[in-house]
Amino acid sequence: MVVLNKIYTKTGDDGETALGDGSRVAKHGMRVTAYGTVDEANATVGMARLHASGEMDARLAAIQNDLFDLGADLCRPDLHKDADAEYPPLRMIESQIKRLESEIDAMNSGLEPLRSFILPGGSALSAHLHLCRTVTRRAERETVELATMESVNPWAVKYLNRLSDWFFVAARAANDSGKADVLWVPGANR
């Protein structure tokens, strides 16, 4: 269990932060950037949940928990040392991706076919889900970049990729099963 009695520690005042293994790195480092953007994505999900209810809200709550798992995964470098860790590191696993895929398939089965690219908007929930999608795509790009420099759990990258797809389909579902999607009209304002 996590206990936070004191919120400020002053240990980051020099521009460094601690990773999950206790090592200290620059706050502008790629690993911190990647899990920081995952945290940002989680905040956008919290905003979307203000407009969600029922099953959609429950799914978004599960995603928020997954995003904390993902942040814990990304803040723990060097996958090769997992077996030697005092506490087993929390890592993303295949079943989390499979759950997203199942939910995408279920939502997509009730949608109108796409005939055009769509613009973020329509309902408030849909607009917020599109924001979730774009922040998640940025987190994915940053995590992929991190993976070119250091070891990253491949399930973490796959989760982000699938999650952005989930948000796209959920945004369409939130627009009356795609009937209220805002369609892009190429060159409409020329």
From TrEMBL:
GO terms for biological process: cobalamin biosynthetic process. It comes from the Bacteria. One of its GO terms (molecular function) is ATP binding. It catalyses: 2 cob(II)yrinate a,c diamide + reduced [electron-transfer flavoprotein] + 2 ATP = 2 adenosylcob(III)yrinate a,c-diamide + 2 triphosphate + oxidized [electron-transfer flavoprotein] + 3 H(+); 2 cob(II)alamin + reduced [electron-transfer flavoprotein] + 2 ATP = 2 adenosylcob(III)alamin + 2 triphosphate + oxidized [electron-transfer flavoprotein] + 3 H(+). Keywords: ATP-binding, Cobalamin biosynthesis, Cytoplasm, Nucleotide-binding, Transferase. Pathway: Cofactor biosynthesis; adenosylcobalamin biosynthesis; adenosylcobalamin from cob(II)yrinate a,c-diamide: step 2/7. InterPro entries: CblAdoTrfase-like, CblAdoTrfase-like_sf, PduO-typ. Gene3D superfamilies: Cobalamin adenosyltransferase-like. Belongs to the Cob(I)alamin adenosyltransferase family. This is Corrinoid adenosyltransferase.
